[in-house]
Automatic annotation (TrEMBL):
It comes from Gulbenkiania indica. InterPro entries: Ribonucl_H (IPR013520), RNaseH-like_sf (IPR012337), RNaseH_sf (IPR036397). One of its GO terms (biological process) is DNA metabolic process. Residues 29-204 form the Exonuclease domain. SUPFAM superfamilies: Ribonuclease H-like. Keywords: Exonuclease, Hydrolase, Nuclease. GO terms for cellular component: cytosol. GO terms for molecular function: 3'-5' exonuclease activity; nucleic acid binding. This is DNA polymerase III, epsilon subunit or related 3'-5' exonuclease. It comes from the Bacteria.
Length: 204
């Protein structure tokens, strides 16, 4: 119901017909998305890179051969702390794509597919800072939050337990391969594997 209301409200605000494909819902594929940014504060955060990969739930398959990855050029140079986290040096992102063009390409990759990710709400909030000026509305796509699905899965097993939602905990518990962290594409693929692992357990 919430997703339907979000889509209806967003469609009324759509001002560029090029992005109407976002409202052409399709459930045969899901897109796992991850963004590396300059800050964890949504208001301050600028994109550094975007990774995304499509998933076919019915086939239990991640389409890594058709993955999406772009470096993005921020208005401010990444500071030393940021470089240590993401490994993206100023000279790396200086050759990146302008954020508006990068987001346009991402929207074409996503279309009307649902989105999934680990703490997806943050990534969507950052992306919406760029989507709204382009389309006139926020992303209307259905959202599947990995940490929330995992919480439900563990709560069902033990209603009184403390549930650790750290990414490494999910990777270990759901027994998915560990990929190098803080790379947008690797993180998107990891989230996709976690989604499929939860799907096999009835929480996709």
């Amino acid at each position: 119901m919430l997703d339907a209301l979000r889509r209806h409200w967003a469609l009324n605000r759509l001002r560029d017909a090029r992005y109407r494909t976002l409202f052409e819902a399709r459930e045969d594929e899901i897109v796992s998305v991850d963004c590396e940014t300059t800050s964890l504060n949504v208001r301050e955060a600028e994109l550094l890179s975007i990774g995304a990969v499509r998933i076919r739930p019915a086939e239990r398959r991640i389409l890594t051969s058709d993955a999406f990855y772009l470096l993005v050029r921020p208005s401010q140079r990444p500071d030393d702390d940021n470089v240590r986290i993401h490994g993206l040096r100023p000279r790396d992102v200086e050759e990146g794509m302008a954020p508006q063009e990068a987001v346009e390409r991402l929207l074409a990759f996503i279309g009307g597919r649902p989105l999934t990710g680990y703490y997806l709400e943050y990534d969507v909030a950052v992306l919406n800072k760029y989507v709204r000026p382009l389309a006139g509305c926020s992303l209307p796509n259905r959202q599947i939050e990995i940490s929330g699905r995992y919480y439900d899965y563990k709560l069902r097993q033990n209603p009184d337990a403390y549930i650790d939602l750290k990414l490494q905990t999910l990777v270990d518990d759901l027994q998915v391969p560990a990929l190098p962290r803080h790379d947008a594409l690797n993180d998107a693929i990891t989230a996709g594997m976690l989604y499929l692992a939860l799907l096999r357990r009835g929480y996709g």
